[in-house]
From TrEMBL, chain A:
Protein name as annotated: Multisubunit sodium/proton antiporter, MrpC subunit
Key words of the record: Cell membrane, Membrane, Transmembrane, Transmembrane helix
Gene source species: Gillisia limnaea (strain DSM 15749 / LMG 21470 / R-8282)
One GO CC annotation: plasma membrane
The keyword Metal-binding is annotated on this UniProt entry: no
Automatic annotation (TrEMBL), chain B:
GO molecular function terms noted in the UniProt entry: NADH dehydrogenase (ubiquinone) activity
GO biological processes: ATP synthesis coupled electron transport
Protein's UniProt name: Multisubunit sodium/proton antiporter, MrpD subunit
Subcellular location: Cell membrane; Membrane
GO CC terms: plasma membrane
Origin species: Gillisia limnaea (strain DSM 15749 / LMG 21470 / R-8282)
């Protein structure tokens, strides 16, 4: 399971970075989304995957005795997902506005600010 | 009561943002609330600073969860100094915004977002948890995205696309670095990480994590070769926004670098050399970039990059004198850079342009204002006894102790270039004969503003100039402060003890 996830994370990072390097604005956003998903899965993987043992102490015990799934990575991913969701929705609105105003989705043509005013 | 003091500046900003959101449509209320709230926040920050100065590092555990498990807020001297500077810049920019930002922008929630930005900055300085730092960074960048796009002019949107992409990429790299670090240590608390990272045997992975952090914070701090988003975007929003960005946003990246590389990844020679090389190249490339620009605010943008080099170079040399120089420069730079962008805004308001070729004759028209503008400009160069001189002296001293001629050369070169640039700006904007410009219609020139508005524009510049003068003439006190901060940073046992409450004698 770990090896499959590791390969998948690698693919997601590579695909995300490739998309960010493209010139189109839409592909840029897609790249950011894919990269974000890769990062979230990476946290999940590095928190050690444990199957079918929730982090709940049985009633008659005081501490954990068996291995249990670490809840912190899940909390981290949840936070990161919410944050990236907010940022991505902002990004989509931003590119829509930018496309309307600049009238191109080619990043190379967005260079009016580099010329002197 | 006093333990919660650590959180007061944070809670106050949150409270202010909420009040401001409730008075969404009432712009005149928002102006008053923002300025009064800023003054109150300044008071609270001074109180916190004085308390930490007397009693040493204070911590508070969120929800009373013991140190490695809960989220810790740590107020050490570095954090409270930066909170104080944030409050100083915050109140100045609040007052400046009240007059210089047009009502159309204010109607779309400029002030609430501005205070959310300050909230994020203060949170980032005070937190002692690496994931919490990530969350504060996100609050900072989402607020800054709104501020940079507010108004939706063409240049703003183009700048925002670049700013957005690079910053979000930095966040992703930061998140990746946190994931790897958590996988290695199983901890997120910075003090705990400091102990656990030192004990890891697989140094190769630690080094890679350190590089991930360096790249993530390097993009935020705009060091060579990761700075290209900054000159593409910082001159596009209104100057009040550029002022808070230029003064504080890159500095939070520098703060994170300082924190991570003095607490978690300590004593790694390869990383120190990498930082040193990046710093030297930042100093040179930022300076050369500023030399060829003709837009005043672009010149200042490149100068931000150039002077980030001074802060990173001390971290690269990693001696107590060098870190003290870095901290002193950080203190000086936040005040001066905020002030410079406001000066840029004021000049724009007077002349209707920021192109230094078309500017001129400011001294003939406004002699007293020109003298005022001289203070931040020449503080930046560091003409003794103004504030930029002393930290450079510390850094040169540190370079000399290390026999590090490359670093010394870069410091002197960047200093010289800054002098050339500021001399060019000064002679073009202030001394050159007036250039006749076509009058812009629908533009509110400075001379047509009413008296309150004029005071609101000039008073923040006076305020920050006075603080600059204090940093220059009262350098002894600031040096004492920076030396103490450097001592705390070099001896990170103090920080760890404060978080885990192991040492009883927290007083330095």
């Amino acid at each position: 399971m770990e090896i499959v996830l590791a390969i998948m994370i690698g693919i997601l990072y590579a695909a995300g970075i490739y998309m960010i390097l493209r010139r189109s604005l839409v592909k840029l956003i897609l790249g950011i989304i894919i990269l974000g998903n890769g990062a979230n899965l990476l946290i999940f993987l590095l928190g050690r995957i444990t199957k079918g043992s929730p982090p709940i102490i049985p009633g008659d015990l005081k501490v954990f005795e068996a291995a249990y799934a670490d809840p912190i990575p899940q909390a981290l991913i949840l936070t990161a997902i919410v944050i990236s969701f907010g940022l991505q929705s902002f990004a989509i609105i931003l590119i829509k506005r930018a496309y309307k105003v600049v009238k191109t989705d080619d990043l190379d043509e967005m260079n009016a600010i580099d010329q002197d005013s | 009561m006093t333990q919660q003091l650590v959180l007061y500046p944070l809670l106050l900003q949150l409270f202010l943002s909420i009040i401001l959101m409730f008075s969404w449509k009432r712009i005149s209320w928002q102006r008053v609330i923002s300025i009064l709230g800023g003054i109150l926040n300044l008071g609270v920050s001074i109180w916190l600073f004085a308390y930490i100065w007397e009693n040493g590092t204070q911590t508070i555990q969120a929800g009373n969860w013991e140190a490695p498990f809960g989220i810790t807020f740590v107020a050490d001297t570095l954090a409270v100094t930066l909170v104080l500077l944030t409050s100083i810049s915050g109140v100045a920019v609040s007052a400046f915004s009240a007059s210089s930002i047009i009502p159309a922008r204010l109607k779309f929630g400029y002030f609430p977002i501005f205070h959310f930005l300050l909230l994020g900055l203060i949170g980032a300085f005070l937190t002692g948890d690496i994931f919490n730092l990530y969350v504060w960074f996100e609050i900072i960048i989402i607020s800054s995205f709104v501020l940079i796009t507010l108004g939706g002019e063409k240049a703003q949107l183009e700048g925002a696309v670049k700013y957005f992409t690079l910053n979000i990429l930095a966040s992703m790299i930061f998140l990746t670095a946190i994931a790897v670090l958590y996988g290695l240590t199983g901890s997120l608390n910075m003090a705990d990480l400091s102990i656990k990272v030192a004990a890891i045997e697989n140094r190769g992975l630690v080094e890679i994590t350190a590089i991930l952090f360096l790249v993530a914070f390097g993009i935020k701090a705009a060091v060579f070769p990761l700075y290209f988003w900054l000159p593409a975007s910082y001159h596009t929003p209104p100057s009040a926004v550029s002022a808070i960005f230029g003064g504080l946003l890159t500095k939070v990246g520098v703060y994170a670098l300082i924190r991570v590389f003095t607490l978690i990844f300590v004593g790694d020679v390869f990383m120190q050399d990498t930082i040193l090389v990046m710093a030297i190249l930042t100093l040179i490339s930022g300076g050369l970039g500023a030399l060829i620009q003709t837009n005043l605010r672009k010149v200042f943008s490149y100068l931000i990059i150039c002077h980030i080099g001074y802060m990173i170079i001390g971290l690269g040399m990693y001696t107590e004198v060098a870190i003290a120089g870095t901290i002193f420069y950080l203190i000086h730079d936040i005040v001066v850079k905020t002030n410079l962008f406001m000066v840029g805004g004021l000049i724009y308001r007077i002349k209707g342009t920021n192109n230094i070729k078309s500017l001129g004759g400011l001294y003939a028209e406004y002699p007293r204002l020109s003298l005022l503008i001289a203070i931040p400009l020449f503080s930046l160069v560091g003409i003794p006894p103004l504030s930029g001189f002393w930290p450079k002296l510390s850094l040169l001293n540190a370079g000399f102790n290390d026999q590090n001629w490359w670093a010394m050369g870069a410091i002197l070169f960047a200093s010289l270039i800054t002098l050339v640039i500021i001399a060019k700006v000064w002679s073009n904007v202030v001394w050159k004969d007036k250039v006749e410009l076509p009058k812009r219609i629908n533009f509110r020139y400075f001379e047509n503003l009413n008296k309150t508005r004029k005071i609101q524009l000039v008073a923040p510049i006076v305020f920050l100039s006075l603080i600059s003068l204090y940093i220059g003439f009262g350098a002894e006190h600031v040096q004492q402060l920076s030396t103490r901060v450097a001592g705390e940073l070099m001896d990170n046992q103090q920080y760890i003890d404060a978080v885990f409450k192991t040492g009883q004698n927290l007083k330095p």
